[in-house]
């Protein structure tokens, strides 16, 4: 890991592109190894699990899906998994708001309009963020930051692993694990590693969010036309 000494925006953007390119390269290397294992060592049924619900969501409301994949998911997931990685007081408050967001999703009825739901949640969380700044003394944030900074390496790697395992639910309704499922989520562990890396190097929450959005948007560019045409003709 190369922590940037230069706070120049151009340097950070170049580092973002560099890490994104390395992540894509790791994806390619992983899929080459996976293909080798599938053909020569294991008889892997890589079609065993499919993201049916995600594809159905894409078919039913493409605009909502694009918003969730390219904007909402990167913001929320990075706020949960990377905000406590060498945090500041600001990112600690963001982490707490992200956890409360998950509870908010449970409380708001599923049939509520998706745009109104996210606007409501954003407004409530903005008030909570402000209240935490006013009600909780700064020294408590400093203590928490000091402790979390000491264990940043554990938080970085563990966060990447948990980030990957959470995506098991893209394929199954209840938690389960076998070799095929693990191989399906392994690219997410790779992504989680690089999202943490860019956060540490560029020293800011915006960078893993941008990289996460770039990752999801790249997938959308390839998947969206094919999926929509497939559902149109089927």
UniProtKB/TrEMBL annotation:
BP term (GO), one: CAAX-box protein maturation
Keywords of this entry: Hydrolase, Membrane, Metalloprotease, Protease, Transmembrane, Transmembrane helix
Domain CAAX prenyl protease 2/Lysostaphin resistance protein A-like: start-end pairs: 61-137, 150-217
TM spans (from-to): 20-42, 62-80, 92-108, 114-131, 151-169, 175-195, 216-233
InterPro entries on file: Rce1/LyrA-like_dom
GO MF annotations in UniProt: endopeptidase activity; metallopeptidase activity
Entry's EC annotation: 3.4.24.-
Enzyme class: hydrolase
Keyword RNA-binding among UniProt keywords: no
Source superkingdom: Bacteria
Name of the protein in its database record: CPBP family intramembrane metalloprotease
Taxonomic lineage of the native organism: Bacteria, Pseudomonadati, Bacteroidota, Flavobacteriia, Flavobacteriales
